[in-house]
Write a structure and sequence with these properties.
By secondary structure, the protein is mainly alpha-helical. The chain is about 60% helix and about 5% strand. The longest helix has about 35 residues.
Length: about 190
């Protein structure tokens, strides 16, 4: 089975009428495989793992699978909404794309949770190659883009400095899938 690449959506296009037919919440990503449309990162990644079972994106070992799900939970409940989304919006998206003044208090409020998240991710990564073990998993694929964008901010650089997350992120950024799914040019330039 072969997938064809989806057309990348530019900044602001996720609110267009055409895109809202694919993802009614106007968020990225949205995915199409033939006539089958899907949105939400976890759903897309688990679908891809089902249709392309080798190499697996979900560990077969119960403890590694549980660790993967725990790390996804850290991303979904703490890291993305309370740290990455706040800092990246305040430092990059708001000022550069929307002309909004940076809210330094919002950034400062996100830092303690950021420290906790990065410290815990660093601990869980340990000496492993990937977050849930020695093989790539959905946890790696979900966190790498968030951490990559956060690392473009002074606060992100400081949070990641000296952690095992730094070399992990460098390895992740060298993967063809990360290279092929970089942020739109406007967001890269804004960072």
């Amino acid at each position: 089975m072969r997938l064809t690449a989806c057309r990348p959506w530019g900044v602001g296009e996720s609110k267009s009428e055409a895109y809202l037919r694919k993802h009614p919440f106007g968020r990225v990503p949205a995915f199409e495989h033939g006539n089958f449309g899907l949105y939400e990162t976890q759903a897309i990644l688990r679908y891809l793992d089902d249709i392309f079972p080798e190499p697996p994106l979900q560990p077969r070992d119960a403890q590694q699978a549980a660790r993967m799900n725990q790390i996804i939970g850290i991303n979904d409940w703490y890291f993305f909404p309370k740290v990455a989304a706040v800092i990246v919006f305040q430092r990059i998206i708001g000022p550069a794309l929307l002309g909004i003044k940076t809210d330094e208090a919002a950034i400062e409020a996100a830092i303690p949770t950021g420290r906790t998240c990065v410290a815990e991710l660093d601990r869980l990564l340990g000496a492993q190659q990937f977050l849930a073990g020695d093989d790539l998993s959905i946890a790696d694929l979900m966190l790498a883009p968030q951490l990559d964008f956060l690392a473009e901010t002074p606060e992100g650089k400081a949070l990641l400095a000296g952690t095992r997350i730094e070399p992990w992120l460098e390895r992740m950024n060298k993967r063809p899938s990360m290279q092929a799914t970089q942020r739109p040019d406007a967001l890269r330039r804004a960072a």
